[in-house]
């Protein structure tokens, strides 16, 4: 039930008395030791939530629903457009599998606080493994299956897992993605020495696996269930690596208590999903969107979640999303705008929609990249449902700005993710940290402390956490996005202020692509920037200066670099653009002017910095951009 003014009341309550607001929200969570305090601000800027509370996250996702008599309700539907199969698991069935897999992990030495790296495709075992870690109070770190061995190795190094859970492979349209070799290579490259590698042998992907790897199904069949282990609310639940400005990924740390409270609150207030209703988040468990709204959020709410292995188009056609909505009576679909653009490209009038009964759909939520007004208008027209843009990041774990449909639906403005979610005090500031007038672009920041459910730090790296997010503007968290707030308090996100790019909703660092490009023997220096792409939003584009006397054609160089990025980072980088240029624009101190290059590539107004070494380089570069478009 929604009422007018509910949003403003909730926003003000969370801002003026966060303790009361979040302690009240915490009542919706099952605690072994209920918290008596919400915010611990004893060591700013390292804020903690619910410092004296204890709970188990898996209990909140599964056991509590079974205990309250909902064991027969469907918790998880696996729908694979790749294999044409479907399976569903009730809460009782999922609990049984999770408890037994927790038993497997425990037998292999995984205890509270130990890390488990999960490198799995979109199969139920991914959800089972995540929840089994949570049951033991262990810390999972899921690595997206589209990342190649070196990226996996970097994450293994940092997380130092006690166990790795993987599968024989994943399925992409027209090809099988082998997981065994990347895991072997990554383990060989890495300093990590897990005591077990547990592998799910997919019947559709037979593979030779090392003799000392543990078979997922055999181990599960033989295991005895593990009881849940209560942990401190402030203990870590997971580490999720995300791209930063440098090539080294950042391990975003999420706690148990704040996460359970925030996601539980968000399910009703933002998505308006309750027990028994179906939420389908068409993302991947390797991203934060998958963590929060394929796995944890819907299960905390006692809802039914859909795990979809497939694409919006080509599996088999552009009606795939409408088919899943109809087959599973989906109430809320959450996806990335790129998926909508992909559907629109193939089926401009969404003619295939007419073949399916999608009447159960209440709203479409999108995030991951900006929802351009054109795609918004198209989706609103063909679906005839609210299309809700909402803005968030791996770091925040749940939406910073949204249209809170369960609390009080607000008028939608094309191009805006609406208003700050209660708990997030969003501001737009200029370079010196001063507030800018309404409608003026600036850096988007959030006043500290952030609400529950947001990152508590970076794994093993307090210094980087402070430097990356907390030191630019005193008292504020730096989102890395620029944008503006209009007279009505609506936010518009315009883009990143750093070298992070968003390719088909996948967050990548241009720095890590540059690091691969720079290793080519013919490359003297290079810059990789994100340029506009009609379907994927952005794509990486490399500008390369050759070494004097380098004997290579541009075509050969392109072929080499595409193969290298695919091998080192993964196919998901969608790296295809390479342009040889005579020089890169630099400051007199030798810093490459990537921001200026981005402005040129986007056709935006170019602000030539006074520190530029040689402005004529920009003219030559402008030629290169003209040639590309
Ligand atoms: N494992 C292995 N490879 C993967 C992969 C995975 N999990 N995910 C993607 N890839 C591969 C693809 O097969 C493709 O390989 P190719 O170059 O050999 O064709 C490459 O990585 C690029 O993938 P992608 O950018 O996803 O392009 P696509 O053409 O396969 O699909 C979309 C385009 C728009 C349909 C798809 O990106 C999509 O559905 N995006 C939604 C993204 C999303 O949910 N983001 C999460 C935030 S909400
Ligand atoms: P990720 O951490 O992968 O979720 O990526 C977070 C980044 O994606 C944000 O910092 C934004 O740059 C971008 N992003 C996510 N959602 C939106 C949105 N709704 N509108 C604009 N940009 C978005």
TrEMBL record:
Q: Which GO terms describe its molecular function?
A: acetate-CoA ligase activity
Entry's Gene3D superfamilies?
A: 3.30.300.30, N-terminal domain of ligase-like (3.40.50.12780)
For the keyword Ligase, the answer is yes
* A Pfam family per the record: AMP-binding_C
Question: What are the residue boundaries of the AMP-dependent synthetase/ligase domain, all occurrences included?
Answer: 65-447
Please state every residue range assigned to the domain named AMP-binding enzyme C-terminal: 513-591
Q: Where is the Acetyl-coenzyme A synthetase N-terminal domain?
A: 7-61
Q: What is its EC number?
A: 6.2.1.1
Which key words are in the record? Ligase
Top EC class per UniProt?
Answer: ligase
Q: Which PANTHER family match?
A: ACYL-COA SYNTHETASE (PTHR43347), ACYL-COA SYNTHETASE SHORT-CHAIN FAMILY MEMBER 3, MITOCHONDRIAL (PTHR43347:SF3)
**Family membership:** Belongs to the ATP-dependent AMP-binding enzyme family.
Which named protein is this? Acetate--CoA ligase
């Amino acid at each position: 039930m929604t009422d007018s003014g509910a949003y403003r009341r909730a926003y003000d309550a969370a801002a003026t008395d966060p303790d009361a607001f979040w302690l009240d929200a915490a009542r919706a969570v099952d605690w072994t030791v209920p918290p008596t305090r919400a915010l611990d601000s004893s060591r700013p800027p390292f804020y903690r939530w619910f410092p004296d509370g204890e709970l188990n996250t898996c209990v909140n996702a599964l056991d509590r629903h079974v205990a309250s008599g909902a064991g027969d309700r469907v918790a998880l539907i696996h729908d694979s457009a790749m294999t044409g199969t479907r399976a569903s698991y009730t809460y009782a069935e999922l609990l049984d599998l999770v408890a037994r897999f927790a038993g497997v992990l425990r037998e292999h030495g995984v205890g509270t606080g130990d890390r488990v790296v999960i490198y799995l495709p979109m199969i139920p075992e991914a959800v089972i493994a995540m929840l089994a870690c949570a049951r033991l109070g262990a810390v999972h770190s899921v690595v997206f299956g589209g990342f190649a061995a070196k990226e996996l190795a970097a994450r293994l190094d940092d997380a130092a897992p006690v166990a790795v859970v993987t599968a024989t492979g994943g399925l992409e349209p027209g090809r099988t993605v082998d997981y065994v070799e990347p895991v072997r290579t990554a383990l060989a490259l890495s300093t990590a020495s897990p005591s077990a590698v547990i592998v799910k042998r997919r019947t559709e992907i037979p593979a030779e696996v090392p003799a000392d790897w543990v078979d997922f199904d055999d181990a599960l069949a033989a295991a005895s269930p593990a009881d849940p282990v209560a942990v401190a609310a402030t203990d870590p639940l997971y580490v999720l690596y995300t791209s930063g400005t440098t090539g080294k990924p950042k391990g975003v740390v999420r706690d148990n208590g704040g996460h359970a409270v925030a996601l539980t609150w968000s399910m009703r207030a933002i998505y308006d999903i309750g027990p028994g209703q179906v939420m389908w988040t068409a993302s991947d468990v390797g991203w934060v969107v998958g963590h929060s709204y394929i796995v944890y959020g819907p299960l905390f709410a006692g809802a039914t979640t859909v795990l979809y292995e497939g694409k919006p188009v080509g599996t088999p056609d552009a009606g795939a999303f409408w088919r899943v909505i109809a087959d599973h009576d989906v109430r809320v679909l959450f996806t990335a705008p790129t998926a909508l653009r992909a559907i629109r490209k193939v089926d401009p009038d969404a003619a295939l929609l007419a073949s399916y009964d999608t009447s159960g759909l209440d709203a479409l939520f999108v995030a991951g990249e900006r929802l351009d007004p054109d795609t918004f208008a198209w989706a609103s027209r063909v679906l005839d449902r609210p299309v809700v843009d909402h803005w968030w990041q791996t770091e925040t774990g749940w939406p910073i700005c949204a249209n809170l449909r369960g609390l009080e639906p607000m008028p939608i403005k094309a191009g805006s993710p609406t208003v700050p979610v209660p708990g997030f005090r969003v501001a737009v500031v200029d370079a010196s940290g001063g507030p800018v007038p309404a409608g003026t672009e600036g850096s988007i920041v959030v006043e500290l402390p952030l609400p529950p459910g947001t990152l508590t730090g970076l794994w093993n790296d307090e210094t980087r956490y402070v430097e990356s997010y907390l030191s630019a503007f005193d008292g504020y968290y730096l989102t890395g996005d620029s944008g503006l707030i209009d007279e009505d308090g609506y936010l518009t996100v315009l883009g990143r202020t750093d070298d992070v790019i968003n390719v088909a909703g996948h967050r990548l660092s241009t720095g890590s692509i540059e690091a691969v490009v720079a290793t080519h023997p013919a490359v003297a220096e290079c810059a990789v920037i994100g340029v506009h792409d009609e379907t994927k939003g952005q794509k990486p584009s490399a500008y390369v200066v050759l070494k004097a006397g380098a004997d290579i054609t541009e075509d050969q160089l392109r072929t080499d670099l595409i193969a290298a990025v695919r091998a080192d980072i993964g196919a998901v980088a969608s790296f295809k653009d390479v342009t040889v240029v005579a020089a890169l624009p630099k400051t007199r101190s030798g810093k490459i002017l990537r921001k200026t290059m981005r402005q040129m590539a986007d056709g935006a107004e170019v602000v030539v910095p006074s520190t530029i070494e040689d402005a004529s380089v920009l003219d030559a570069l402008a030629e290169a951009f003209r040639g590309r478009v």
